[in-house]
Backbone:
């Protein structure tokens, strides 16, 4: 069975600090997809990134970067120079190739960026 | 614009009064699903559908029903709601074909349900 663990329930940082959100996953499949979603206070889910299991290249998008390491089953998310608008709940999720497209979510990390 | 539309966004109801939350997508996706979000638990899948007239249970199906009579619509039905079904609900759709950008799941805006 697949599982996603986000051990950090809440994180607070001061604006302009860098912050890393951890995500550890478990799966028996060799083909799978990893996702990060952002949930701002308004409640909607905003797609941030998708990664497939064959692509371990790190990705950078503006202030966001993702570090995928299959050896440690981790897919960590770093925000550089955080801003107040980054305050949200962030979810990591996993979809196995053979799981009929089901997403298994972690419990989420509440990030608060203080001015 | 590609979107998944849920209605209503907010709903307060009483125990035992049947309700339906609608979900519609305009992307011709085969796969649709419902999730509920609860504090400390993340999102958990309730039901999913691979295509018209094909539905199956997710991880927490008790107390819910779904139907898929048309490809674009996937309503969630609570025949006799109870307070433990108070939650934030999300509908999602995606293509079943694993290729390119088709692995992204599109989510509706969410429905906040309170059962008193």
Residues:
């Amino acid at each position: 069975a697949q599982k996603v663990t986000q051990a950090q329930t809440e994180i607070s940082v001061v604006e302009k600090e860098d912050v890393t959100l951890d995500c550890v996953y478990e799966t028996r499949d060799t083909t799978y997809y990893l996702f990060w979603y952002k949930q701002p206070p308004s409640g909607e889910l905003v797609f941030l990134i998708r990664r497939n299991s064959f692509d371990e290249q790190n990705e950078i998008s503006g202030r966001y970067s993702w570090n995928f390491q299959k050896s440690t089953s981790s897919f960590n998310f770093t925000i550089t120079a955080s801003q107040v608008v980054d305050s949200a709940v962030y979810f990591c999720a996993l979809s196995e190739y053979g799981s009929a497209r089901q997403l298994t979510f972690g419990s989420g990390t509440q990030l608060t960026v203080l001015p | 614009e590609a979107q998944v539309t849920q209605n209503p966004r907010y709903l307060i109801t009483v125990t035992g009064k049947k309700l339906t939350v609608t979900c519609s997508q305009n992307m011709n996706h085969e796969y649709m699903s419902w999730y509920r979000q609860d504090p400390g638990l993340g999102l958990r899948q309730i039901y999913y559908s691979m295509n018209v007239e094909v539905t199956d249970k997710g991880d927490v199906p008790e107390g819910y029903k779904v139907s898929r009579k048309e490809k674009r619509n996937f309503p969630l039905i609570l025949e006799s709601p109870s307070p433990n079904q108070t939650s934030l609900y999300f509908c999602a759709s995606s293509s079943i074909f694993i290729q390119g950008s088709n692995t992204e799941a599109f989510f509706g805006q969410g429905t906040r349900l309170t059962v008193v």
Q: What stands out?
A: The mean pLDDT of chain B is 92. The two ends of chain B are 36 Å apart (CA to CA). The interface with chain A takes residues 31, 33, 35, 40-45, 48, 50, 56, 58, 88, 90, 92, 94, 96, 98, 101, 103-107, 109-110, 112 of chain B (CB under 8 Å).
